[in-house]
Design the sequence.
């Protein structure tokens, strides 16, 4: 039997969810979260879950302690206020660390950005939403009354209160004994999906640009995973030539030298054609770059590859251009000019860490 | 221990044995019902403040989450929990070693003795176990009828005011008996309007109107001139009696108040109570119950209970040392005029009148004191030095907490201030019809420490939602008298000097 307090805990978590949501932007762009997996809990400091009351100002009040130290000595760390000090540490005291899973955060992200649910395509797509009545509750509509449980409860009560007479085994359920079936909607989606992440690792992409890509691709990944259990992700990096790499390497690699974007698009197209044909797969491609391509010639080749090869084969092709000092960022404009009317293509400029959420909204706001 | 509990036989034997030792020392505890719980149940009960059943509220869930997390990471484990009830209920953690169970039992009998005999607990509800369960049922019923969030929101607001009760109230009669005529007051006679000419009298004041006025005056005579007659420290009670609450709101508020009143004596005697229980577990264990093979584990866990961290006072430690100090002083006769006036350090150190009244004295003290009087009476300068007590405070220049002083008078004053009124600010209802506009005026009795302003504002908001009319708090901020006001829409504050 689950403990009674689980209800209170669930209620508390609801409240926490609300608080986390209110401060979502600042949490999501933190580096520590990156690399966690779905059900894993991450610790998030949540301010202000407390009941206010008339109370003394802590700092004015002071305290009494026991042990070593001369007047003027600092209290050892871990004392009344803990570490930090300086401005803002007053709130620091009341921070509460709560565990939230990445899945939950992805849901919150979806709610916050008002992302539409993705409608997967493919042969074996979704098993319809079903409400499954598997739980029992103490209140509910009469039509869902669970007779057996109700009588069981009545028996229990009568036994406990000593009004049960085995010679005359009649049960009289009262209001408190009534039990009802209750249920939950359980959507089940089954589709094949793959994301290809393409990143420009040429010399002009600095650490900060890569961090932005990391954060953004992580949350895109988390959101898509909510919709496609068993989502596959593949990682491609490119400078003048492209190659597929491991997830770790994807975020770490730093090459130098020039940029030939068409190399990545060609490789991506080969992979999609070979492994993920459009009729059975939901394919997502996200490409991040600072938008400095080798030359007009290569850009033209990119446009061709997209128009004739990649775009027809994918659900979504997102191009995110990370602002980078010293990069012209011409590529985005050229793509828009050439292919701006294709609805599989989404273009987004990412101004920096703060721009990540808006960019995600641009990418995923179409619900494709 | 006559109740059929789930206690396994060997634990029941241990409990009986430890209880025997406790009684032999002269302790007079309630019967104690021990329950064995696994860690998850233990965390639940602890989150519920020791009770197996409380009304639904998220803060219990929060406490549970924190305890479970701490347990999971191995940071802390709850050893002992006992509730003030007749019989007392106490919980044993299933996975504990026998030596721990014995320690816990001995500790628990100390608490049960304290609950039963200390004056502060004399008026607490001794069937609180049942009362709590009833509260739970009632709040659940309100939630079923009105929705979880609406009820929870009210509970939140009531809890914001939870500390505004009068913990001395059970012991004294603050108000005159209802219906008793005020002494020395003559009946006021109706005089009617002034009529300068005799013959106009019956036109200006027709006979009927005089009778009516007389009736009105008589009705008024019983009523106090202002509400409340004198400042009311039990703000919750005042709200219950005078705020325009719906029945379910009244019920919830009364529930919160009952529970606050029940827990207040425990906050009021924390140092004494924990010290007393620790004193007795150490005596019972070391003198009677301990098997030599268990010594190391016992010493380890006992030391854990008494550990101090800088910046916080361990009530177990301070309490037990004070109890021991009192016992020693009364055993050796180190008290009274003669001892106080003795100037020779050497003589004082050697002082021993072989009175042997220590035991008797501590039993007397456990009956008659609470933390404030306990510390005030028995914390001596010698004790303060020996225990290395200090006062600390925030140093804004260096932005850190610092040891401020070891001077006896200041340390003791600081400690007493922290204990007075359970560390809560003294706030009382001053006027229920402030400025004749039905506003509620509260007065904070400022004792040198300002209120935390943001919280004070939020609390006023909660108060206003119950009182319905604007509420005003009179306090001091930065040394100036200030009125904080919340009218249901916005906060304002006015300096008065």
Sequence:
């Amino acid at each position: 039997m689950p403990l009674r307090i689980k209800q209170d805990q669930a209620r508390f978590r609801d409240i926490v969810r609300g608080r986390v949501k209110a401060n979502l932007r600042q949490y999501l762009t933190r580096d520590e979260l990156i690399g966690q997996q779905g059900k894993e809990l991450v610790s998030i400091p949540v301010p202000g879950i407390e009941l206010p009351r008339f109370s003394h100002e802590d700092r004015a009040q002071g305290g009494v302690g026991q042990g070593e130290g001369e007047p003027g000595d600092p209290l050892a760390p871990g004392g009344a206020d803990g570490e930090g000090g300086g401005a803002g540490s007053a709130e620091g005291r009341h921070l509460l660390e709560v565990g939230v899973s990445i899945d939950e955060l992805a849901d919150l992200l979806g709610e916050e950005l008002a992302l539409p649910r993705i409608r997967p395509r493919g042969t074996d797509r979704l098993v319809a939403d079903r409400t499954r009545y598997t739980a029992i509750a103490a209140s509910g509509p009469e039509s869902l009354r669970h007779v057996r449980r109700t009588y069981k409860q009545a028996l229990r009560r009568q036994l406990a209160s000593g009004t049960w007479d085995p010679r005359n085994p009649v049960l009289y359920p009262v209001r408190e004994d009534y039990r009802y079936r209750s249920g939950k909607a359980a959507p089940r989606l089954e589709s094949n999906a793959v994301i290809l992440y393409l990143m420009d690792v040429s010399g002009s992409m600095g650490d900060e640009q890569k961090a932005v890509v990391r954060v953004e691709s992580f949350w895109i990944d988390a959101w898509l995973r909510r919709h496609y259990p068993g989502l596959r992700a593949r990682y491609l990096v490119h400078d003048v030539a492209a190659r597929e790499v491991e997830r770790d390497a994807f975020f770490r690699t730093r090459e130098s030298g020039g940029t030939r974007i068409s190399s990545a698009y060609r490789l991506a197209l080969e992979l999609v054609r070979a492994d993920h044909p459009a009729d059975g797969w939901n394919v997502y491609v996200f490409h991040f770059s600072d938008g400095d391509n080798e030359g007009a010639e290569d850009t033209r080749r990119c446009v061709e590859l997209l128009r004739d090869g990649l775009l027809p084969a994918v659900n979504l092709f997102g191009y995110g251009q990370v602002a980078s000092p010293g990069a012209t960022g011409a590529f985005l404009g050229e793509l828009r000019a050439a292919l701006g009317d294709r609805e599989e293509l989404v273009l987004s400029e990412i101004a920096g860490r703060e721009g990540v959420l808006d960019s995600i909204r641009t990418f995923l706001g179409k619900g494709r | 221990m006559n109740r059929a509990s789930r206690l396994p036989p060997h634990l029941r034997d241990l409990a009986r044995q430890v209880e025997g030792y406790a009684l032999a020392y002269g302790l007079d505890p309630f019967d104690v019902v021990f329950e064995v719980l696994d860690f998850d149940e233990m965390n639940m009960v602890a989150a519920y403040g020791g009770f197996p059943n409380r009304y639904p509220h998220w803060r219990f869930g929060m406490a549970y989450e924190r305890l479970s997390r701490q347990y999971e990471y191995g940071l802390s484990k709850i050893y002992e929990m006992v509730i003030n009830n007749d019989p007392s209920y106490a919980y044993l953690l299933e996975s504990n070693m026998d030596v721990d169970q014995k320690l816990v039992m001995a500790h628990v009998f100390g608490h049960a003795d304290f609950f039963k005999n200390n004056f502060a607990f004399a008026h607490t509800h001794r069937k609180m176990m049942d009362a709590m369960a009833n509260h739970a049922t009632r709040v659940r019923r309100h939630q079923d009828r009105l929705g979880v969030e609406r009820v929870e929101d009210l509970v939140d607001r009531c809890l914001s005011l939870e500390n505004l009760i009068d913990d001395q109230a059970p012991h004294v009669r603050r108000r005159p008996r209802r219906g008793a005529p005020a002494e020395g007051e003559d009946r006021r006679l109706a005089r009617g309007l002034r009529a300068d000419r005799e013959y106009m009298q019956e036109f200006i004041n027709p006979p009927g109107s005089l009778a009516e006025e007389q009736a009105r005056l008589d009705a008024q005579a019983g009523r106090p001139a202002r509400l409340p007659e004198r400042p009311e420290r039990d703000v919750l009670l005042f709200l219950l009696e005078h705020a325009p609450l719906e029945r379910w709101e009244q019920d919830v508020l009364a529930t919160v108040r009952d529970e606050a009143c029940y827990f207040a004596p425990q906050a009021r005697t924390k140092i004494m109570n924990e010290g007393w229980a620790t004193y007795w577990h150490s005596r019972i264990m070391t003198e009677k119950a301990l098997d030599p093979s268990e010594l190391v584990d016992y010493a380890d866990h006992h030391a854990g209970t008494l550990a101090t961290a800088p910046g916080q006072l361990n009530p177990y430690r301070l309490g037990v040392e004070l109890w021991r100090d009192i016992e020693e002083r009364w055993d050796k006769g180190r008290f009274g005029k003669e001892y106080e006036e003795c100037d020779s350090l050497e003589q004082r150190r050697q002082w021993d009148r072989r009175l042997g009244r220590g035991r008797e004295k501590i039993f007397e003290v456990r009956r008659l004191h609470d933390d404030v009087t306990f510390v005030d009476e028995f914390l001596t300068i010698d004790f303060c030095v020996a225990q290395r007590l200090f006062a600390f405070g925030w140093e804004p220049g260096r932005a850190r907490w610092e040891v401020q002083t070891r001077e006896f008078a200041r340390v003791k004053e600081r400690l007493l201030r922290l204990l007075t009124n359970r560390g809560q600010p003294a706030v009382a209802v001053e006027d229920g019809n402030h400025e004749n506009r039905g506003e509620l005026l509260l007065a904070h009795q400022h004792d040198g420490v300002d209120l935390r302003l943001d919280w004070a504002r939020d609390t006023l908001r909660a108060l206003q939602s119950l009182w319905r009319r604007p509420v005003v708090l009179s306090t001091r901020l930065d040394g100036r008298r200030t009125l904080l006001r919340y009218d249901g829409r916005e906060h304002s504050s006015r300096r008065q000097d």
